[in-house]
C-alpha cells in the first residue's frame, strides 16, 4: 500500500496556525474585558464607601466642608464609573470581533480537514481497487499457468 500524501497539507497547517493565533487574540481580548469589569467593581466599591462616609458625615455635628468634599468625591467616582462602562463596551466589542474571526478561521480549518478526509477516503478506495486488480492478475496468472501444465 502506498503512502497517503495530502497535496494541500501545507495549507491545512497554515489554517491551524491561524486558528492558534486567533485563539490567543480571543483570550487576550477576553482577559482585557475581565480586567475592565474588575476595575468597574472596584469603582463601585469606592462609591459605596464614599456614600457611607457621606451618611456618617450627615449624622451628629455637621461639617459642611467635609460633606462637600465627600459629594465631590462621589461625583468624580460617578464620572469614572461612566468612563469605565464605555471601556467595558469597547472591550466587549473587541471580544465579539475576536470571536467572529476565530469562528471564521475554525470553519475554514474544518473545511480543509474535511477535504483531507475525503481525499484520504478516495486514496483508500484507489488502493483497494489497485489491490483487487493485482489479486485478479495473480489469480489469472496462477490459474492460467495451471491450465498449461
Summarize the structure in words.
This protein is mostly helical and 149 residues long. It has a domain at 9-108: Helix Hairpins (Orthogonal Bundle). The protein is 90% helix and 0% strand. It contains 2 helices and no strands. It has helices spanning 9-57, 64-148. The radius of gyration is 35 Å and the shape is rod-shaped.
Spans of at least 5 consecutive residues whose pLDDT stays below 50 are none
Strand count, sense and barrel status of the largest sheet are: none
Total number of helical segments?
Answer: 2
Structural class by secondary-structure content: mainly alpha
Strand content: under 5%
Radius of gyration: 35 Å
Overall geometry: rod-shaped
CATH class of the domain at 9-108: Mainly Alpha
Order of helices and strands: HH
Give the % helix. over 70%
Number of strands: 0
CATH topology of the domain at 9-108: Helix Hairpins
What would CATH call the architecture of the domain at 9-108?
Orthogonal Bundle
First and last CA, distance: 33 Å
* Overall average pLDDT: 92
Amino acid at each position: 500500500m502506498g503512502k497517503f500524501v495530502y497535496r494541500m497539507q501545507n495549507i491545512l497547517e497554515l489554517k491551524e496556525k491561524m486558528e492558534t493565533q486567533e485563539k490567543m487574540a480571543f483570550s487576550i481580548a477576553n482577559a482585557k474585558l475581565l480586567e475592565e469589569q474588575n476595575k468597574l467593581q472596584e469603582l463601585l466599591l469606592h462609591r459605596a464607601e464614599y456614600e457611607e462616609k457621606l451618611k456618617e458625615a450627615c449624622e451628629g455635628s455637621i461639617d459642611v466642608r467635609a460633606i462637600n468634599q465627600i459629594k465631590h468625591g462621589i461625583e468624580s467616582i460617578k464620572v469614572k464609573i461612566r468612563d469605565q462602562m464605555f471601556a467595558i463596551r469597547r472591550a466587549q466589542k473587541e471580544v465579539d470581533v475576536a470571536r467572529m474571526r476565530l469562528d471564521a478561521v475554525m470553519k475554514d480549518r474544518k473545511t480543509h480537514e474535511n477535504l483531507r478526509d475525503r481525499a484520504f477516503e478516495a486514496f483508500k478506495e484507489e488502493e483497494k481497487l489497485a489491490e483487487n486488480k493485482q489479486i485478479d492478475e495473480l489469480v489469472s496468472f496462477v490459474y492460467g499457468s495451471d491450465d498449461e501444465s
